[in-house]
Amino acid sequence: MDVVKLREYETLSPFEIKDFLAKAASKAAGSSAVSYLNAGRGNPNWIATEPREAFFLLGQFAVSESKRVLDLPPGVGGMPQARGISSRLSAWLRKHAEMPGAGFLAAMVPWSVQKFGFDADKFVHELVDSIIGDNYPVPDRMLVHNEQIVHEYLQWAMCGMPRPKGRFQLYAVEGGTAAMCYIFKSMKTNRLLNAGDTIALGTPIFTPYLEMPHLEDYDLKVVNVQARQENRFQFDDAELAKLLDPKVKAFFLVNPGNPSAVALSAETIAKIGAILKKRPDLILLTDDVYGTFVPGFRSLLGAFPRNTIGVYSYSKYFGCTGWRLGVIAVHEDNLFDDLIAKHPEPVLKKLDKRYAAITLEPRKLRFIDRIVADSRDVALNHTAGLSLPQQVMMALFSLYELMDTKKSYQKACIGIVKKRVEATLEGLGIEVAPNELYDYYYGLIDFEFWARKYVGEEVVEWMKKNVHPLDIVFRLAEDHGIVLLNGSGFEAPDWSVRVSFANLNDHVYDDIGRAVRAVARSYRQAYESSKSKAAKGKAAKSTTGPKARAKK
Known about the structure:
Helix content is 50%, strand content 12%. By secondary structure, it is α/β, with parallel strands linked by helices. It has three domains: 3-42 and 408-542, Aspartate Aminotransferase, domain 1, CATH 3.90.1150.10; 49-133, Histone, subunit A; 144-402, Type I PLP-dependent aspartate aminotransferase-like (Major domain) (Aspartate Aminotransferase, domain 2), CATH 3.40.640. Helix 4 (85-95) runs antiparallel to helix 5 (102-116) and helix 18 (447-454) crosses helix 19. The chain is globular, with a radius of gyration of 27 Å. The two termini are 45 Å apart. The relative contact order is 0.14.
């Protein structure tokens, strides 16, 4: 595509460019023998079946419990009652033992009672009443039993070993997207971040983190702390030193990275710990959606709970992007409550006024509860909280993983994406050294780095002078029916592309690798053609110039 035309797309998010690429790829697939392959978005093409089976079966029991209380034509039921409901569920499951999900439900209740010390009737009633969805969320932040279950799940999914002392306060939200929005909003509202303040972003990073700070709503200055490919996507000392600047109020990162797909090493985490000893006021925000794809994953939330706001989404691991399940985690002993308490009196009075309608003592309102209130503009605080059926699904997903002591599900998920990575590398014709910190969910192909070896230095230098970096993704779409995202949109190298290994069938990933090779070959052909034209032009000039005429 023409360089001038491609420059028009430079300001767009890669997720918006994707729409143009999808149209081009669909057109290519419709008019040729190529298949339409969209590896641009990370929606997985697998799901966790057993907790879903349990969910739908539990729903049937819940309806029977409603009818037990009240059953009027034409289909009017009552609200499930708690007394004896655990025994009734056990009896009902014995009658329906052949139904998918029955075994999991039958094992889940006694396991949870033993693990968490739940009252069986209260626990089952929370599940049944919630799946019916006949009440507002109470408490509005998160259901009592669900919070305990998810807390244990997050200890496994995010915190690693050793586990941090104390407890996290959790807010169940509509996926990682909602978590981002709510956190940004509440940090601004509570003057933890003000217009003109500086934050640091661990780059490359998920695009919205690049875009949101510059919105008029926040107007933040940004310093990039780069994790470079040559350092295996770890932050080196020089980059981390940027965090020592007291003007940097917060450090936001995605771990494992998106699009780098690499988790922070123990060494890097230790270096961040050394920074915090000098900067105990530094706010950390870590988005750990892909941590479950790295065995033994350790989040900053687990390493530095006092300074860290944790974000987790169930979407990718359990194949449930449509369910919108996420959680915000803030430790009970946290920096944010302390920073708010230290605000000048005029600021505190403004915040007192903001939250006065929901508490008699606004200054004692915890930061996590401020996030809840702010997510509903305070006035609607009483209706806050993730929908109750969603919270049931969240609990079932969490319990499914916690009860899987052999980690069979985790191994299966990792196996799926790892196989696809290997196929892509085979298509590219390269080998990559193993990295135990790699989550395999995404891949970042540094086209410039790879092309220097595949088509030569001279081709790459010509390409950088004559081709726009976005030409790669448009060429893949227009010529091969393949959608990948431009790495530049994630603050990755300009000549890089992001591949999702989650959303296509295994056998097509070698096709993607071969298509990238084909694009590189097309640049080599264009380079050789330009050389040939230049040589012919030079020869023609030599035969028609003044010296040639003089000889004649």
